[in-house]
Structures are given as structure tokens and as C-alpha cells.
Request: fold
Amino acid sequence: MRIVICGVGALGSTAVQYLRNVDAELRLVDFDRVESKNLAAQWFVKQSLGKNKAEAIRLQLANFYGAKAEAMGVRLAATNAVQLLADCGLAVDCFDNADSRLALSTAARAANVPLVHAALAADGTFGLVRWDERFTPDREDAAGQATCEGGEHLPMIGLVGATLARTIQDYVRNDRRHDYMINLAGVIRTA
Amino acid sequence: MAILNITYQGLSADYELELDFAASDEDIRRIAVEVVRSGGVRGLHVAQLPFNAFDQFVIDRLRGADGAQRIYLRPKVPFGA
Reply:
């Protein structure tokens, strides 16, 4: 199976760490570049500064663990979604905005590719891992709202990212589609 | 009857709601404020909870793993990357 991870910032990069030995091929999609501020909350190292995020994760997986992945340094849009999802048995949404989440959801449904989403509240107290059939993207309260990139919420990012990886592992191994919500007290299965 | 799950400041708790599953979002938010302020939700008592505390929260109506009707009142989750 090939898994496409869309967005490898905080949640995506964290989840990929825990998917390095999953029984699947990973395709990483992100147009953005690694900045110094990302080191606080995302799984990047100083040597990755300035690199495309998807390519940086591919190199880190190869250099640290000898694990292979495919990097696509592009922005997902309606025009390229079919190519990015080609031959994939699972899509994973770790985007940071509702428009990209909707574009991915539309493309995955059209291609009949299962899709799981991961999402985080701005204050770092709450997160969701939810399959597409029960997920509606939330918009920011205001454009440019503060995010989790300062590193203050790194433990919660780790918890949501690990829960996402576990959900993906459970799907690959057992074909199960469970949803979870994550708060400061723990991880709660909701479906 | 449905189970209302409220998440506030990183904590979540259930409250059995004598209400139709399709109750309006406005009614659910208003009831949630009242029961959290009054201490009716075990593990989630905030006596001074502002009356507008849930105005920006999202309401999901889902069927639980056990088949029960569940309503989730939760913060927005716009972020990922």
C-alpha cells in the first residue's frame, strides 16, 4: 500500500516519525520550506533549514533510519490532486487550513481513496483524528490566528501525531477506521 | 435522548441530555453553559464560566461506537501543519 501524507508540518512530520516502519510506502506532500521557527514544534533538524519540508523529511528518514519515502514539493490543488493521490491506498490530511482540507477531501472522495484527518486547536488543548466520512474542516476564527508553531504545545502535537500514526497503523494492519479525540487528560476513542 | 460531550480548556466530560438529537446549536450551547456553571457535569464544573464561552465552539452530531447518539461540543481545530 502507498500512503500519501498531505502537509508535513507539526502533525504530519510528527506522525511520519512513528510511521517509519509501517508496512507501506510513504509519499510526502508539502510546498513549504523549513524555517528556523519550525524547529520548535515540527520534526525538523537544523541541517534541514531552507529545504522543502517534504524533501527534508525524506532525507531525515533516510539518514537517521534508512527508511525510504517519496517527496513531492508541491501545493495540492484541484489541478494536481489526481496525480498526487495516484496509486494510493490511503490519504492523510495534516493541512493547516480549511481550503486545502476541502480540496483533498473532494479529490479523495472522487478517487475513492480512504482519507483520515488530524487537526489541532489553536491553544494546544485539544485535537482530533477523524475519518473523512465524519469530518468537516473548521476555519480559523480570524485569518492569521496564532498557531502552535511556537513550540509551547509540543507535547500535545506529539500526542495527536502519535494517535494519527497509530490510527494509520491500525488501518494498514487491520482495515479498522477508528476516530479519536485528544485532550489534556488523554486519548478518547469516539468511533 | 442524547449524550452531550463537552470539551473546555482541555478537559472533556459527558452529560446525559433529555433533548432531541436535532436540537439547535444555540440551544445546545445555552444548555452546556448552564450545566457546566451549575456543576451538573461531573469533572467539569466552572462556576464562573462566561455565558459566551461556547459561542465559537463547534457542534458535531455523531453516532458513537456503542450506537448511542452523541453530541460533541468542542473547540475549533483549524491547524495541522
User: Anything to note?
Assistant: The helical segments of chain B are 25-38. The radius of gyration of chain B is 12 Å.
